[in-house]
Amino acid sequence: MMRAVSAAETAPPVYAWAVHAEALVARAGRHVAVDRLDLALGTGVHGLLGPNGAGKTTLMRTLATVVRPSGGRLHLLGEPVTGRADLRRIRRGLGYLPQHFGFYPRFTVREFVEYMAWLKEMPKGAIPGAVQRAIDRVGLAGRADRRMKTLSGGMLRRAGIAQAIVNDPDLLLLDEPTVGLDPEQRVGFRELLREIGTDCCVLTSTHLVEDVAAACADVVLISDGRLVWQGDTQQLADRGGAGDAGDSATERGYAALLRAHRGGTGTTAQARDGQARGGQDRGGRDRDGSPA
Amino acid sequence: MTPHPTGALLSRYARGADGVDEATVWALEAHLECCAACRAALAGAVDPATVALLDEVAVRIGAGVAAGPGPARPRRLRRTGVAARTVRWLAAAAVTVLAAVACEKSFASMPSLVLLVAPMAPLLPVAAVWSRHTDPAWELVATGARAGLWLLLRRTLAVLLAVTPVLAVAGWQTGHAPARWLLPCLAFTAGSLALGAAIGVDRAAVALALGWSAAVVLPSLAGQRLPGVLDSAAWPLWTGVLAVCVAVLLARGAGRRAGPGRP
Questions:
Q1: Is residue A68 classed as helix, strand or coil in its secondary structure?
Q2: In a mutagenesis test of the A interface, which of B33, B82, B135, B139 is the best target, namely the one with the most A β-carbons within 10 Å?
């Protein structure tokens, strides 16, 4: 039988950006990990790159509504994230894979994903089908009824991705999703990302520049909690010169941008590369720019 | 419903919609979905080779379904599996209460240990169900749409349903009126949730347990007499405390959005 499509699913989004941060400040403990960050992300797969301690995980946690922003403004899926806002609507459309993926070891994969679907307030009747679909998509169908504690690291990561995509999220946040995946699984995972990214905003943080080059259309580079550069993968590759460190064009581009940032030559405003998205970008600003 | 398609259109559609424009195909398919007669006409219009192929596919799928694993059986108790993590905390609470009963029965001269322990009995399990340290998936729970006051109340209720029967047995064995152990127990539970809105439920529960031990349990054990707050006559006090805590909890809870362990 065909799945019925509800009116809510076919309704066009009424927001310009799935993620829209202006001068966002977020703390990890007392440390200011995200420092006046401006970011606008629309539909597609975005790779979040940055050196260790750049604030990637804190940014992910803030966007996942785990950490409250301590300054600036943040809109997710068109809804403001403020002190006492009701986040349920955002959270229903959210998929999140934390860096440290905690799970209940006695649960089977199916039970765990079902529990997460329940937590995301999915309609009761839709849960079993959605769970099976999510498990199929990450290639764990043969192990759906095995307990989580018997899975290997790569399978756990895939179970984590399954729970993140079970509700067909509008905003999917994956923190280091490729850790522990073998090369073949990484290729499969990139396929999955591209597929999901056709109608959903995916932000995936990673240390592996090659993952970004292969799976992401758009790259966000942050360092010390600030946006260093945003543009598409080709532009990132073009940034690299012959003298930069790295084995591929993308890696050289990454190294060149970081070097320029550390040398103080690249400012956030100048480094924003997306000419193609420039006009759209301004449109989004104007639309959401009214004081809340 | 759209009008029935002509036989010519149906046969062209059955041959793979050659020469039929997309809008017509959409209209036809929308009609076919809700018209059994036209579906039957379509089945007749399909050429024999396709019919044979469809039959073969049906037979093979049937064989596959019969040979494959059965459908996964839904488990009603799935979500209580989450509570299974807290079994050891519940067991610790139960053992403490039962030890208090044994002590009280053996040493009649001491102040009632059951009454002294009852307010603290649910606190550790309550801390355990809403803490980052004991919930491995706290980060995921915190981003769920259900995170917040109602999930916390749900888990607390589960703890109370497990702890109260043990206390009831203890109260029955030692002959104390329910108001003397149940009201302090509920008041302390509500207090830990209300205070938890400010400092985190796990910290609030532990702080209340330590505070009660230091301020009431130790002095009454040292002084060999039960404090006035645990008399039968103190029930209005406990009811008042309970009401205030519940009011605070609900008032603060409206904007509450956090997951385990967070204010």
A1: coil
A2: B139
Asked if A66 lies within 8 A of B142 by C-beta distance, the reply is: yes
Under 8 Å between Cβ of B74 and A128: yes
Q: Which residues contact A205 (CB under 8 A, 6 or more apart)?
A: A47, A48, A49, A50, A56, A57, A59, A60, A174, A175, A176
pLDDT in tens, chain A (292 residues): 456 667 766 777 778 889 999 999 998 888 888 888 999 999 999 999 988 888 899 999 999 988 888 888 999 998 888 766 678 888 999 999 998 888 888 888 998 999 999 999 999 888 889 999 999 998 888 888 888 889 988 889 899 999 999 999 999 999 988 887 888 888 888 888 888 888 889 999 987 888 888 888 889 999 888 888 898 888 888 887 777 777 888 888 888 888 888 876 444 444 444 443 433 443 333 333 333 3
Closest residue on chain B to A84 (Cα)? B255
In sequence order, the 6+-apart residues with CB closer than 8 A to the CB of B23 are none
What percent of chain A has a predicted confidence (pLDDT) above 90? 24
Q: Measured between CB atoms, does B145 come within 8 Å of chain A?
A: yes
Question: For B80, which residue in chain A has the nearest alpha carbon?
Answer: A115
- Across the interface, do A66 and B137 touch by the CB < 8 Å criterion? no
List beta partners, residue A41: A19
**What distance in Å separates the CA atoms of residue B263 and residue B178, rounded to the nearest whole number?**
32
Report the distance separating Cα B201 and Cα B194, nearest Å. Answer: 8
